[in-house]
């Protein structure tokens, strides 16, 4: 019952922390009350990407003739089979986490944990049995869940969150999605592509509000072209369910009210941290605005207790949680890790077209007082995009005109989520525009558009 390190939660922060701790010689355990891998692997990142792939294949099949392929008969989506495949992918990955934990000699404790001391916690299993464990270091990585608004109370059937959206028993005819961040936009693309009459509603001035406005407007146009209804600067006042129909009452920026009827309403207005019943109050662990307060190495104000992932400051992203886990545990082990640079976090949205970005967008760069150079390269000028059959999208780069350092990179188009890591590495290494222009990019690829956009920023574009 005595460990060097116990991690509470086995998501992308928790299981990484546990494995790293064991690799660094600590006797380690991880406590999990549900499936290994957490929300991201079981009910978020991974299963949603499986659904996106199914939607992409269906779309390709519908337009197979554009590629010189003849398909006999009507192409139809098999929605239950798509859901089944998605769940199978999640189950496979969860088993992979179980294997990795076993391989690295991490004990798995099934149950719900509560801190009873700065080096002690109590775990309650599904049968109500309780056991006490002690550890020199306890890392909290309990993640988050779908945020519930008073005017959008989720019943799990007609007004749902992302979890229910992954496993609907049948394809609805119509759906209203409230919130156009990554979760809302991805589900909007998925259901709209399968023929569901989809309305996407965003309170802020444009969809994908954390993205560069020009990139977000590009996605807005693509969504509308795909037949989706998009409403920005609109607020959902309330939803009434009557005879299996959801009446959604919306007020736009001019105060005009309208009613939209739909089979399903998906609330995608963000996430809420899982901090309840952890024993934080009893130990006096400091919490501000729903987040545990930590230092650069994720130490709380109580000695021996740490917190990482969605429950601390910073973007609620799987790759951020994993990096925080490495920094936290390496510091515990006496190493000298580099703190996470929250100004260089890539973000990806797996719609069609995809969106990927890192660093400052154009508006924020100007607000920060930078003199900037902006370069753009449209995929209409890309040989690879043209050959692939989808020229919709662009690369946009923003440089500090004085230092020629890359302030931000923003991409929209097919497979751009696979391209953003180059910009992250460039910013991390402090490379200049000349470094990027002098680095030979392979042709024909989508990635050469990054080099082309840099050349455009300095008036040296060849292909546009």
Q: What structural class do you assign from the helix and strand content? A: alpha/beta
**Strand fraction:** 25-35%
Biggest sheet architecture: 7 strands, mixed
Please tally the helical runs, counting DSSP H or I stretches of 4 or more residues.
14
The Cα radius of gyration reads: 24 Å
Q: How confident overall, as mean pLDDT?
A: 96
| Portion in helices | 25-40%
Task: Give the topology, please.
Layout: E1 2-8, H1 14-23, E2 28-32, H2 38-43, H3 45-62, H4 79-103, E3 107-110, E4 112-117, E5 120-124, E6 130-140, E7 144-146, E8 159-160, H5 162-165, E9 174-178, H6 182-193, E10 197-201, H7 213-225, E11 229-231, E12 234-242, E13 245-252, E14 257-262, E15 264-267, E16 271-273, H8 280-283, E17 287-288, E18 291-292, E19 305-307, H9 318-332, E20 347-349, E21 354-359, H10 362-367, E22 372-378, H11 383-388, E23 394-400, E24 406-413, H12 420-429, H13 433-437, H14 448-457
Parallel strand pairs: 1-2, 1-6, 2-3, 6-19, 8-15, 9-10, 9-15, 10-11
Antiparallel strand pairs: 4-5, 5-6, 7-16, 12-13, 13-14, 17-18, 20-21, 21-24, 22-23, 23-24
Helix pairs in contact: 1-9, 3-4, 3-6
Walk me through the structure.
With 464 residues, this protein is α/β, with parallel strands linked by helices. It is built from 14 helices and 24 strands. It has helices at residues 14-23, 38-43, 45-62, 79-103, 162-165, 182-193, 213-225, 280-283, 318-332, 362-367, 383-388, 420-429, 433-437, 448-457; strands at residues 2-8, 28-32, 107-110, 112-117, 120-124, 130-140, 144-146, 159-160, 174-178, 197-201, 229-231, 234-242, 245-252, 257-262, 264-267, 271-273, 287-288, 291-292, 305-307, 347-349, 354-359, 372-378, 394-400, 406-413. Strands 1, 2, 3, 4, 5, 6 and 19 form a seven-stranded mixed beta sheet that branches. Strands 8-15-9-10-11 form a five-stranded parallel beta sheet. It has a five-stranded antiparallel beta sheet with strand order 20-21-24-23-22, sandwiched between helices. α1 (14-23) packs parallel to α9 (318-332), α3 packs antiparallel against α4 (79-103) and α3 runs parallel beside α6 (182-193). The radius of gyration is 24 Å and the shape is globular. The model has no long low-confidence stretch (mean pLDDT 96).
């Amino acid at each position: 019952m005595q460990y060097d390190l116990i991690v509470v939660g086995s998501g992308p922060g928790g299981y990484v922390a546990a494995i790293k701790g064991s690799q660094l010689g600590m006797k380690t355990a991880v406590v999990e009350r549900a499936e290994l891998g957490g929300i991201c692997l079981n009910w978020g990142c991974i299963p949603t990407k499986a659904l996106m792939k199914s939607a992409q294949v269906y779309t390709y099949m519908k337009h197979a003739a554009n590629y010189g392929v003849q398909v006999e008969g009507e192409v139809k989506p098999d929605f239950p089979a798509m859901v089944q495949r998605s769940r199978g992918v999640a189950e496979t990955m969860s088993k992979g986490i179980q294997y990795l934990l076993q391989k690295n000699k991490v004990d798995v404790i099934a149950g719900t944990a509560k801190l009873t001391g700065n080096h002690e916690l109590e775990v309650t299993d599904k049968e109500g049995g309780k056991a006490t464990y002690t550890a020199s270091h306890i890392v909290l990585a309990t993640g988050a869940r779908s945020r519930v608004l008073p005017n959008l109370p989720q019943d799990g059937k007609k007004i749902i969150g992302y979890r229910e959206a992954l496993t609907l028993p049948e394809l609805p005819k119509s759906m209203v999605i409230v919130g156009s961040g990554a979760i809302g936009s991805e589900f909007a693309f998925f259901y709209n592509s399968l023929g569901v009459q989809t309305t996407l509603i965003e309170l802020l001035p444009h969809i994908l509000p954390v993205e560069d406005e020009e990139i977000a407007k590009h996605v807005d146009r693509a969504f509308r072209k795909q037949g989706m209804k998009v409403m920005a600067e609109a607020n959902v006042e309330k939803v009434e369910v009557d005879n299996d129909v959801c009446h959604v009452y919306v007020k736009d920026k001019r105060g005009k009210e309208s009613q939209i009827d739909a089979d399903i309403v998906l609330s995608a207005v963000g996430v809420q941290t899982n901090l309840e019943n952890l024993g934080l109050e009893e130990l006096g662990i400091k919490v501000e605005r729903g987040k545990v307060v930590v230092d650069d190495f994720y130490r709380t104000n109580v000695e021996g207790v740490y917190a990482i992932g969605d429950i601390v400051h910073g973007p609620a992203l799987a790759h951020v949680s994993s990096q925080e886990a490495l920094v936290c545990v390496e510091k515990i082990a006496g190493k000298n890790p580099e703190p996470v640079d929250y100004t260089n976090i890539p973000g990806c949205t797996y719609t069609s077209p995809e969106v990927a970005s890192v660093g400052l967008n154009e508006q924020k760069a100007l607000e920060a007082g930078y003199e900037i150079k902006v370069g753009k390269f449209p995929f209409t000028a890309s040989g690879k995009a043209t050959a692939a059959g989808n020229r919709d999208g662009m690369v946009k780069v923003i440089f500090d005109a004085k230092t020629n350092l890359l302030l931000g990179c923003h991409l929209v188009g097919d497979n751009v989520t696979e391209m953003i890591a180059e910009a992250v590495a460039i910013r991390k290494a402090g490379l200049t525009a000349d470094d990027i222009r002098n680095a030979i990019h392979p042709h024909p690829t989508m990635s050469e558009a990054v080099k082309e956009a840099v050349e455009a920023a300095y008036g040296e574009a060849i292909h546009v």
